[in-house]
């Protein structure tokens, strides 16, 4: 499809050569080596400086990693240092034509400065999402029970707050204005609040260990990498959403698509969109029950 493939790594020559040989050479024909897979290889790139600064460029000329100064990169070469601008100029490509693949968001995608250079094009961050997704699937029953307990506590807590507000208003000589406290005197209000506190405490005793155990199927120490607590996204997940155009569990997933594929993002929902989705579900249920369209 006319695409070029580059390897840009911060590792030195000896480490890169050993790792790539081990990872690729055993799967290649005898007359091929890992370097034949790439149109250009750059080691010791010093990312993220690679994207915004110009370092001296050296060509690796021997199998032992000896280098000589070089002023222009060429296709098929093995280089050390340089800059993103040098790569663009030597291959006659520009930022919006580049799909950048990385697995470390701090060094592969500079959060402040790199976006305006080579990163103008599509970015792609690959995370180990498969084990986490599997753990989430197997945690469904656990999380459903946990959410139900939290919802119960919210209902009890709301009733407690209504009684608390009613008692507070009475103490200042104002009407209670809550249905829950209409027929209660002050002592009954206090006793009811104490009972509700006991109920919430018992719910907390069930909720706390379940919250602690949430995510243990993925990591006993860290829980889910994509979650912060039960509801929120983790800092890592927010960075991936913000700076990566695509993220997937492994590069081989792209084998299912042609090189000409244009990936489009799904609808980005807002908090209030959940109500419209809820209404759509209700309307769909009503249609199913009546058989009308």
Automatic annotation (TrEMBL):
Domain of life from the UniProt record:
Eukaryota
Listed A to Z, the keywords are:
Hydrolase, Magnesium, Metal-binding
The reply on keyword Metal-binding is: yes
Q: Which GO terms describe its molecular function?
A: 5'-nucleotidase activity; metal ion binding
Instruction: Cite a single Pfam family from the UniProt record.
Output: 5_nucleotid
PANTHER family recorded for this chain?
A: 5'-NUCLEOTIDASE DOMAIN-CONTAINING, HAD-SUPERFAMILY HYDROLASE, SUBFAMILY IG, 5'-NUCLEOTIDASE
Family of the protein in this entry = Belongs to the 5'(3')-deoxyribonucleotidase family.
List the protein's name.
Answer: 5'-nucleotidase
The organism is: Populus deltoides
Q: What is the lineage of its organism?
A: Eukaryota, Viridiplantae, Streptophyta, Embryophyta, Tracheophyta
